[in-house]
Structures are given as structure tokens and as C-alpha cells.
Write a structure and sequence with these properties.
Distance between the termini: 18 Å
Helix content: 40-55%
Structural class: alpha/beta
Order of helices and strands: EHEEHEHEHHEHEHHEHEHEHEHEHEEHHH
Radius of gyration: 21 Å
Amino acid sequence: MSKKIAFIIPALTGGGAERVVANLTKGLPSNYEKFIIIYHTTDKSYEHNGRIINLNIGSSDNKFGKIINTIRRIVALKKIKKKYKIDRSISFLENPNLINIFSKGNEDVFVSIRNHQSSEFTGITKIINKVIVKFCYSKADKIVAISNGVKNDLIENFGVKSKEIETIYNPVDIERINNLKTKPLEEKYRKIYKNPTIITVGRLTYQKGQWHLIRAFKKVVEKVPNVQLVIVGTGMLEEQLKQLIADLNLTNNIHFTGFQDNPFKFIHLADMFILPSLFEGLGNVLLEAMACETPIISTDCQSGPREILAPSTNLNTELNNYSIEEYGVLIPVLNGNNIDSNQSLTPEEELLGKAILLLLNNKELAERLKINGIKRVNEFSFEKISKQWVDL
């Protein structure tokens, strides 16, 4: 008799966690019956291999509404688990993790922690999150951390016991990326890539730190006037970022594409990929950039980039300069301040600019990182990561 696995996620499009769920449904063996339980439908969904069950309980704009919706989701999910005789339920992101735990019946409950928890929240929200992680997540049968950095954070800052946590990295659909990365660009983007081109992909939010890259990029343009920066993604900081670009007179050098169903064709053609994040869980987009054969510069933020780009080094290493690693270039983590154009560059922004110029000018280094990256990403294949989930 096949085991019945339920994946719980708000939607099946838009972000890294959603893509991982879709990938897992394709990567797990056929002897598992797979259900994907979502909160609401979207116009598009990532390619998957599971039966979708829609709770039809979307989001709310006020705190009271959020609480009511969470309770409704718990009740609905409990009924679904019972109706379909779910054997294992695996949730991704904070709210799904809560409703998974509080709807627990006879099934085994797994919660997946996708971000560096002690960096993600501030103020009263941070205190509430600490209580949730410490006292609620411990009720799960297993906590799955997306990286060893996330695991260490849970142990050191939330008092979670090591034996309760398993580290399983995200799987990467290398075959799919290989098929998509060579698709032709639309005409309006082709002229950009006739110049040296840098790319970053991610939500336009505080966590992703794109304004630091924009500020550092100003220095790069002074040395290489025709260099271009492509920003793929949407988010609440879009207008602020566009204003910063205008203030720095970079409108002709920086281009927003919005959300893209196929970001890989943009990444594949770029001379380098930059991850300016202030914190991450893993930084799955780094793996996707490797699969796209694109050299990488990343902040050495908590957590993930060092595990991907410099796996043989100590996770607690602190940088004071950029560092050329086996699979990419790491720079010190950015400070999260200075979103305007008036202040001088921070030391970390200066280093980011220098690292970009280094990679633009050193073709031998860029080629070596490209080749090494292709080898590295194979360690995150469907087969290897799916086996870890099956074993768990």
C-alpha cells in the first residue's frame, strides 16, 4: 500500500519554498501518493506531480482576520488529513507549519524551516516567533532545516534539541533548468546583453538588500560605463529602488523585468550573478545560477551561501574582505542601512563593487567558477535530495 504524503504551502507559485514543494512532488518515488494542500489558487502554478486540494481560505489584511483564518485552516486541514488518511504531512513556511502542528492526528508531522529565524523578525514579532519555534515546533515529529546554518540557529538561539532537527537541502531541477536556460530572450531584453551584464533575482524586500547592490553598482559604472544590471522580481521596495536608481543617474544601466516564469534564460546569459541578501535560509537561487553556468558573488550572510560556495570552510568564518572560494566569491554581509543616494558607500558596498570589477576583468577566474559551479550543483540533484526525504 502506498504512503500518502501531504505537502502544505499557501500557494504553488511565487517563491523558493513553493518551487521546492513542486520539485519534491516530482522527485519522490511513484509509490508515494502525493497531495498538495494550498490556501488559495493563483493564475499560474509551478510544474508538479501531485493532487492539489484547495482550502479556499486566503489571506487577511488585519490581525484579527489572520487569527480567524488560521483557526479555519487548522479545522479544514484536520478534516482533510482524516478523510484521505494522510501518513506524513510536510509543511513549508511559518503559517503552514503552525496549522500542520495544531491539526496533527495519527500522521507524522514534519515542519520545514526555510530561513535564519533569529534574523528574520524584529521587535514583538521576534519574541512571538521565539515562543512559537521553541514550544510549538517541538511538537512536530521532526524539524527539517534547509541548511546547517539554520539548524545551528535553532539550537543556539531557540533551545531546540539537535536530535529533533534534520538538515535537508533544497533539490534543484537541473534537467528543467537546462531546458529553459537556452530559450531565446524577448527582443526588448536582447540589447541589454550586448554589454557586460550583471543579474540578481529575488523579491524586492528588505531581506534581499538590492539597494546595497545598486549603490555599489554606481562605482562599477564609473569604471565600466556600458555595464548593465538586470533585476528580476517584484516586491514592496520596487518604487524606492527605482527612485534610488534615478537619484544615482543609473536609469540607463539598470533594468527591472518583474516576475519571470523563466528567470533562467536571463541568468544564463549574464556575466555574473549577485546575491546581496542580508540573511537567507539557504539561497536556492545560488544553486539555480550554478545550473545556469553563471559565476556568483554573494554576501556571506546567515545562512546558506557559505555552505554552498565554500563547503569545506568553517561556518563561523567572519570576512573583512572579499574572498575567492571554490565555487564563488563571498563578501562581508551588508549592514541593511543607507537606502538613499546621499551617503557614502559602506565598506561592504565598496568591497562588493571591487569584487564585481574583479570578476568582470578576470575571465579566467569567471570561467573557473562557472565550471566548478556546474559540478557543485549536481550534489543538490533530485535523486540525492529526494533520497534524504525518503530515508527520513
